[in-house]
Design goal:
It contains 1 helix and 5 strands; from the N terminus they run βββαββ. It starts with 9 loop residues before the first strand and ends with a strand. The strands form 2 sheets. A 3-stranded antiparallel β-sheet has the order 1-2-3, with helices on one face. It has one domain. 15% of the residues lie in helices and 38% in strands. The protein is elongated. The chain is an alpha+beta fold. The longest helix is centred in the C-terminal third of the chain and has 11 residues.
Length: 72
C-alpha cells in the first residue's frame, strides 16, 4: 500500500514514433504505460487509450477531457 492509499498513483508513460514497414507510410506512435505500485504494464497505439487506462485507476471525475483534475 502506498503512503497515501488510493490518493497516490504513479504512472510511467513512454511514447515513441515507430517507422512502418510499408514504404512511404507515415510513422505511428506507440505508447507504453506502467502503473505503480502494482507494476501493471500495457501497450497502446493511441494516447486516448493511455488516458482511459489512467482514468480506470483514479476516482470518478478525476480525468476530464484528458486533463486530470484535483480531488475536491
Amino acid at each position: 500500500m502506498t503512503p497515501h492509499g488510493s490518493d497516490l498513483h504513479v504512472f510511467v508513460i513512454r511514447a515513441r514514433r515507430e517507422p512502418r514497414e510499408i514504404p512511404g507510410a507515415p510513422a505511428e506512435w506507440r505508447f507504453w504505460i506502467e502503473h505503480h505500485p502494482g507494476g501493471e504494464q500495457h501497450y497502446y497505439r493511441s494516447f486516448a487509450e493511455v488516458l482511459a487506462f489512467i482514468e480506470e485507476h483514479l476516482p470518478a471525475g478525476a480525468v476530464t477531457h484528458g486533463v486530470a483534475q484535483p480531488p475536491r
